[in-house]
Structure formats: C-alpha cells, structure tokens
Amino acid sequence: MYTVVQMPKHLNPETIAPEQDAGLFGVDRPGVAWDWMMQTGQPPEGDDWVRPQVSEAWYRCIEEYRLSPRTNLLRPHAIMDFENGARATSATNLDVRTALATMAFNLQPALRDTSVSLLLADSAGTLIHALDAGSNLGPMGRRLVRLGESWNELIIGNNGLGTAAVLREPVAFDGKEHFSSILHPFATVGHPLFAHDGSLVALLGLITDQRSSAQTLLGFVRIAGYLVETNLFECQAPGAFMLRMRLNNISAGLTGQDCLLDGLISLDEQGRIVGATRTGLNLLRAERHSDILSKKVEAVLGVTLGDLRACARQGEPIELEIPHGWRLKAEFIVRRRPEKDIVQSSRVSTVKGGSRAAPGAAPGRGAKEGNGEEWRDAVLEAAQQKAINLQKQKIPILITGESGVGKDHLVRMIHAQGIRKGRPLVLVNCAAIPRDLISSELFGYVPGSFTGARTGGKAGKFVEAHTGVLFLDEIGDMALDLQTALLCALDSSEIVPVGGSKPVRVDVQVIAATNSDLPDCVRKGAFRRDLYYRLNGAQFWLPPLRERPDKLGLIEHLWELELKAQGVDERKTLSAEVWDIFERHPWPGNIRELLNVLRSCLAMTTGRETQVSDLPIDFLKEMSASAQGDEEGEAALSTLAKWRPSLEAKALADWEADAIRSALAKTAGNISESARQLGITRATLYHKMARLGLRK
Questions:
Q1: Per-residue pLDDT for 634 more than 80?
Q2: What is the mean pLDDT of residues 474-492?
Q3: SS3 readout for 378-440
Q4: H/E element holding 504?
Q5: What share of the chain is helix, strand, coil (3-state, %, to 5)?
Q6: Contacts 24+ apart (CB under 8 A), 211-215
Q7: d(CA 127, CA 204)
Q8: Which residue has the higher pLDDT, 174 or 631?
C-alpha cells in the first residue's frame, strides 16, 4: 500500500507562475512537486503536479527501492569481480554488445555539433558504450557517462535508461522529474531494445543539458530505437526465412508510428515462427512473443511455408489476412545464413558452434578463434571505401577528429587502394613548418628568389604530388595569408613558385586533416570560410578511441601486432583488471597513446600475464585525474590503489603529493588556481592536503 500526502491548498497548481512549469509537456510542475517530496519524504498526490509516469516512478523509488530524494551520490556498478579475479559478466553478451555499439556509432552523424550524448547500456542498466562522452555536460555529466556507471532505476531513481527497462517502453524525463538531484540539470531519454524472442537485450538512451529538447529527443530515440532493433533482428535473429510485413491500408490499423513501420518475423525451415520484432508482434495482434513463438506460420497467418515460397518465386506480392480481419502485405526473404553464424539473444551466453571466451580472457578472442576470421578495422574501412569512390571524381576530402585517432593512417589506406595508388603521396604538416617557409615548401621557389635559396630552386610539395595525393595535415593551423594562396591553387590547379611569374599546372588530389573545430575557427575569423568549403567536399570524422564501437577488439589486435613486432615467443596476455582499466580509461591520446601503453606494458611484463603494476604510472594517474571532477573522484582513486601492491599505492600517494606541491608553488599558494590546474575542486584539494599533511 502506497502512502500519499495531500499538498496544501495554498500550493494550488493554478497559482504557480509559468516559469515554474518545468515538465516535459508543459502542464506539470515537477519542481514544486519534487521540493514538496524533499520536505515530506512522500510524492504528492494528483496528476496536476507531475505526469502519472513520473508519479509512479517516484512511488517505486520510495516504496520499493527505499531511496531518499536527498541522496545525490552515484553508486557505480561493479565491473570487476574481485573475488574471482575476473571481469563481471555483462547482462548483454559481447557479440551483441559489439553489434549494438556499431549500430549506435552509425547514429552519431545525426547528433554532430549538439550537446547530446548517446548512451548504450546493457539490460541491467550498466553503461557499456557512450558517444560524445558528455564533453558538454560538465563534471557531473561526465561522471554519469563513464563506462560502468549504473543507470538502473533502483540505483539512481527514475531516468530515461533505467525506467525504459522497467516499463519496457520509450520514456523521457526532464529536470526535476528525475528522482535524484544529480540528474536535475539534464533531460534523459531511453528506449528498450529487445531480442527476437522478446527478451530485453540493451537500452539506448540520450542525455543533454538542453532540457527544452526532451520531447524532440523522445521522438528521435523512438525512430533510432526502431532502426537499431530492426537491424539487430536482421543480423542476429535465428531462422532460415523472414517475412517483412506492413498494413495493406495504413489508415485502418495501428495508431501512431507503428502503422508506418515494417514488422518482421523469422521462420525456421519447418515454417515455425522463431522470432519477431515488436512491430511484427503488433501487426499480428499478439500481446507477447510467447503467443506466436514456436507456432506454425499456417496457424498464425493462414498460409503455409510452401505457399509463401511459391509466391516469392513468381515475384507476386503476398497478401495476408490475419484472423482479426487485418490485411497485410508481406515480402518473403530467404536468409540462407549458416547456422554457426547465428548469435543467440542475451538469455544465452554461447555462440552456436563454439563457446564464449572464459572470464578474464581477452575480449573478442573467443569469437575470432570460433570463426577463424582476422579482426578488421570496420571504422577506417568504411571511411576508406567511401573516400576511394570520391577520389574518382577528384572531390576534396576533409578528415576531422582528435589528435591520435589515425587520420594519417586513413590517408595512407585511401592512397594505397585508390585510383592514384602507385603515384606520389606527399605529406605536409602545416603546423610543423615555420610560417615564413611554408609558402616555399608548398609552391617551391625559383633560383635566387631569396637569400639562402638553392641554386637550382625547389619544386615544392604541389609539384612533388603531381598526379598523386597531397595530404595537408593540421590545416587548421595554417596562417591566413597562406590560406589565400592555397585557395587560389586549389581553384585553378595552378601554382606560382616563390619568386617566379609563370604558373605551373598541377594535378593533385587534396586531402586535408585537422583536430581543430574548423567551423568555430571560421566564426572567429581564424580560417577562411571559402577555403573551408573548398576543402570540405566530403568530410570524414574519426571517433576518439573511447567512443569506438570496436575499442576492445582494436586493443586486442594492436596487442597481437606488438607481440609479433617485438618477437615475443612466450604467449603474453592482459589480465582482467588491465582490460577493465583499458575499457574505462578516457584515452585522451587515443590510438597513439594506446600504442605507447601497450609497448610499455609488454616491456614491463615479466610473467605470462600483464598486471596493473606493469602499466605506466602516468597512465594510471591520468585515469585517476579523469575521475576527480568532484569529491567522489577520491573513491575511484582508492579503488584503483587497491589493485596495486602496497608499495605501489604508497608511491601513488607520493606522486600525488608532489603534484600538489608543484601546483601550490607555481600559484604562490593560491588554492583556487592550484585546484584548477590539478583539475579538482577546492574542497577536494583541501581534503588531499589535510590527508597528506601539506600546507600552503
């Protein structure tokens, strides 16, 4: 029995000022209602204050989960199983996780240049993948989107992801509609993702500090969830055949978006239904998957498998009439997928034809041994193929992304497989060449054009790249006056050497790369608008390592390459604790940093398994610093210290003390400035100084 408290009459909703309306649909007053709950410990009564969905969620938080609205601390989900010394098993198996992360990655362009972070959690609400990683969400937002953080409703109260798992439907919450105060600055949206048998397999969600956009994002996540779930069904559901169905008359059936979406059901070779999407379930007027699974298609649709195959062979549309009187149009699809390639839903922890890797084993190794396929860089290969097609039309290519994500490697891949392979590939680092020399480096010079010039002159990079590819790296750092000359060269395909007067015609494919925000540079006047659009014929964004859907597979692949490169005879592996750190580390240096860490690990490892003590100390400190956006970062540092021998933990404290002393010395004892340089709060700095016995 739930207990409710009647709000006093002087707080009548009609008397609340319009600016206090903070609800998702503009008719509820969650701010006032939450404050009342904060005072009384009970949610208010009546739908005038909060939506029923919010009220019911608050009741669950108080009555079932025994949460307090005053609780504002995060309790991260334990990724590690310390008792067994292995990684804790995720509620979603690794194969499905990787597939879902790849699908979520493909949604990234729709969220580019927004303050929205796309999240993917397993069915238990534990975050397993994040895009944009909360870069615009502030310290608490960055904590919320750390891998391993729990969004389960019984941990942090109602939220888009956690409540979507409970209700099994898309939901959105805005500001103080959230039970926990840590979520009040944000809007959260969630969509449950189901397997072919109706089991909850994962959660797709969004978080933003632009709370007014919650309703729009709810519509976006509905569409995105449908696309991801349908893609997952087509790739992972069992069955030899599939039916793609739609209402014959969309005005006489389902309401809302379901009447516009295709429904899918999967059939085995005997014509039994072995899977269905939720839209497919709705089209068949079934309430749950158990109503149709394992039944013959003839019993459900009134048509035999032979009839379906005959219609498909004749190229005729298949019209079905289900018992409830609805008429459906259907497309019969022969999938012909080998049984060994079919991955079960999250209820099954094995892959047909092989077993999953044991806990603590390198992620992805079990799958690779099972099918004999080598790891492939899907992110770079997809960009490479598109760029090769663009090369045929001589369209300029702009590659963007953080430093160290592999932009130069992608350019070499494009050149090696493109129509200009075998021709010159000339690389120019626009940030490394002195400003007074870059013009002569790019365009060359004639003899005697300036003091110190070569007797025979110099051809320049454009001429060297003639008939080939010219790669302009760090283009955002090029001086404005040289941008004008570059634009003229690109427009006319002619260059004039320094000191010369006769133009030289060149044929080059230009590929530019930058880690700068070029549109922002254009707005600030630091980069020419016309040059930006001239270079931006087609743009490819490479994700940072922390956001790559195949991050663990890439780490394992590079580890294997390092073993071969260093000629290590004895088989060395990474421990479960190291894998956990690699998965959750922010990797600000991206792949370049990863390579250095792996090489250092290999050099330091004395046994057959790399331990946390073999990791570079600055790498561990980097991870600790990323967790100290607030005072709770201390807990993460303590946990990390437990993984190391006591001698190493003491050394970490010494380094921490040295860092604080250095910051205080540089700022002449200014606590606020020292805290800013260290990336922690003033309160955290005072706490650390007291613990370490330090003074100003």
A1: no
A2: 88
A3: HHHHHHHHHHHHHHCCCCCEEEECCCCCCHHHHHHHHHHHCCCCCCCEEEEECCCCCHHHHHH
A4: strand 504-505
A5: 45, 15, 40
A6: 211/22, 211/174, 211/175, 211/185, 211/186, 211/187, 213/116, 213/187, 214/24, 214/172, 214/173, 214/174, 214/187, 214/189, 215/24, 215/25, 215/172
A7: 10
A8: 174
Closest to 576 measured CA to CA, from 82, 76, 96, 75: 82
CB distance 334 to 267 below 8 Å: no
With b for 16 or more beta-carbon neighbours within 10 A and e for fewer, the 382-412 pattern comes to ebbeebbebbeeeebbbbbbbebbbbeebbe
Distance, in Å, from the CA atom of 635 to the CA atom of 115, rounded to the nearest integer, reads 28
Give bridge partners of residue 194 from the DSSP assignment: 200
- For the chain, give the number of residues: 696
| The pLDDT of residue 354 is above 60 | no
Positive or negative: CA dihedral 356, 361, 364, 368: negative
H helix count then E strand count, the chain: 26, 21
Tokens of 67: 């949460």
CB-CB neighbours of 654 under 10 Å: 10
Half-sphere exposure of 25 (CA within 13 A, CB side): 12
Question: Taking the CA atoms of the chain, what radius of gyration do you get in angstroms?
Answer: 29
H or E stretch covering 173? strand 171-174
| Selection from 5-9, 131-135, 352-356 with the highest mean pLDDT | 131-135
Identity of the amino acid at 568:
V
Kindly state the average pLDDT of the residues 82-89.
43
pTM (predicted TM-score)? 0.67
Measure the CA–CA gap between 678 and 683, rounded to whole angstroms.
12
Q: What is the rounded distance in angstroms from the CA atom of residue 199 to the CA atom of residue 554?
A: 29
CA-based nearest residue to 282, from 349, 194, 413: 194
What is the per-residue pLDDT for 367? 37
What are phi and psi for residue 384, nearest 5 degrees?
Answer: -60, -45
Report which of residues 14 and 172 the model is more confident about: 172
Query: Are 105 and 133 a contacting pair, CB within 8 Å?
Result: no
185-194, 347-356, 426-435: which range is least confident on average?
347-356
Distance from C-alpha of 178 to C-alpha of 169, rounded to nearest angstrom: 17
* C-alpha to C-alpha distance for 509 and 506, rounded to whole angstroms: 10
Terminal alpha carbon distance of the chain? 57
3-state secondary structure of 27: coil
The alpha-helical segments, DSSP class H, found in 78-124 are: 94-105
Task: Give the model's confidence band at 39: pLDDT under 50 very low, under 70 low, under 90 confident, else very high.
Answer: confident
**Segment among 7-21, 236-250, 292-306, 680-694 with least mean pLDDT:** 7-21
Within 10 angstroms of residue 9's Cβ, the number of other Cβ atoms is 7
Helix (H) or strand (E) holding 522: helix 518-524
pLDDT at 355 over 50: no
Q: How far is CA 88 from CA 78, 411, 435, 439, 576, in A?
A: 8, 39, 53, 57, 9
Regarding beta strands 509-514 and 469-473, do their DSSP bridges make them parallel or antiparallel, or are they unpaired? parallel
Whether 300 and 292 have beta carbons less than 8 Å apart is answered as yes
Q: Chain centroid to CA 336: how far? A: 32
Task: Give the span between the Cα atoms of 114 and 430, in whole angstroms.
Answer: 29
